[in-house]
Amino acid sequence: MASTGETTYKKTTSSALKGAIQLGITHSVGSLSQKPERDVLMQDFEVVESIFFPSQGSSSTPGHHHGDFKFKTYAPIAFRYFREMFGIRPDDYLYSLCNEPLIELSNPGASGSLFYVSSDDEFIIKTVQHKEAEFLQTLLPGYFMNLNQNMRTLLPKFYGLYCVQADGKNIRIVVMNNLLPRAVPMHLKFNLKGSTYKRRASPKERSKGVPTYKDLDFMQDMPEGILLENDHYTALSRTMQRDCRVLQSFKIMDYSLLVGIHILHRAGEEASTAVPDTQKKGQGQKPLYCTAIESIQGESKSKTSPQPYESMGGIPAFNSKGERLLVFIGIIDILQSYRLVKKLEHSWKALLHDGDTVSVHRPSFYADRFQKFMCSTVFRKSQLKTLEHHHHHH
């Protein structure tokens, strides 16, 4: 470990990794802009582009003060298409990721991954294992097919897959949407799987400012669940059903629903700290379908005067006390199937045809249980009367 007390990952310091990521992505997006727009072809999913960054610089790369490294971009044309689908312009992507320092998040999971968030809060960068990166590559055609049929999804929005190669070590990173905007304080956080086996937050987790609780904690602390009005409940269950079917088709298991809950009346006390900076570049044109509400019902319906925070894209809800909530959700950790998939021929065909790579029933069992838990225990249809009743109160 470096004596600076700085985080290291595979013996690379966090600052060197952040530097390499920003140099690499800048180069990658820049060279992509030279390539004309065109349809994505099947072979685009397999392309890996590689560029060498010697510290003294080269004809095509700037000098830098990290050690020499190599930067690889996976499926650049395919990911460009995904970013475009989600309304992320190349200059915004670059600006968000490379213009300001990346912020390291204190390790949120047991995964051993490093997480960074872009300073404007739009993107999460997460280190992934070799197997996960490889699995994501095999998923891309299916992911592409799914997005073309269904933009309203709670699945992670993957914007880029890269690899930094330094000192003979490969550090693979994936760029994704950030589900929990820091501009909205989360009063409660849950990571839910629909399983009760050992699903309670550890004492260490509980000692944090805002712990991430688990299934047993949810059932104990919110026995009445999160109450949604009819339309939102229907939209959510439909999206959940479609997403689970896709995950099941890829034999994926072990994924979680990340839930962040903001309690509106508590906002008053914190409002001063929580005001989102609206002077953001480009009048904060939010990427499409990237917020919780859009991921279940398409673009935000209400064109009327937005409530405070509504622009942040939470799903309006209530708890059993009748307090108004904003709920932020997304399905995370979907690259887990590789654990169970014994040496899959790493090909698209194997995923499609090879029913036997995993006990066939387990992913469908997992998906059914997950969906049932989310749509009956966690989220519930509220009796409209009570909602109307509370609206008059506020």
Structure report:
The protein has 394 residues and is of the alpha+beta class. It folds into two domains: 8-177, 2-Layer Sandwich (Phosphatidylinositol Phosphate Kinase II Beta); 188-393, 2-Layer Sandwich (Phosphatidylinositol Phosphate Kinase Iibeta, Chain: A, domain 2). It is built from twelve helices and 16 strands. The chain has helices at 14-32, 76-85, 90-98, 130-149, 203-206, 215-221, 230-249, 267-274, 292-297, 348-353, 361-378, 384-393; strands at residues 8-9, 12-13, 48-53, 69-74, 103-105, 115-117, 123-128, 158-166, 169-177, 188-192, 212-213, 226-228, 256-263, 315-318, 324-332, 379-381. The chain has a seven-stranded antiparallel sheet. Helix 1 (14-32) runs antiparallel to helix 3 (90-98) and helix 7 (230-249) runs antiparallel to helix 11.
What distance separates the N and C termini? 54 Å
Judged by helices, strands and strand pairing, the structural class is alpha+beta
- The outline comes out as globular
H/E element string? EEHEEHHEEEHEEEHEHEHEHHEEHHEH
Give the helix proportion (percent range).
25-40%
**CATH homologous superfamily identity of the largest domain:** 2-Layer Sandwich
What's the CATH first level of the largest domain?
Alpha Beta
Low-confidence stretches: 271-285, 302-309, 342-346, 354-358
- CATH-derived architecture of the largest domain: 2-Layer Sandwich
Count the beta strands.
16
**Assembly state (oligomeric):** single chain
Indicate the radius of gyration in whole angstroms: 21 Å
Strand proportion, as a percent range, falls in: 15-25%
Kindly state the mean pLDDT as a whole number?
82
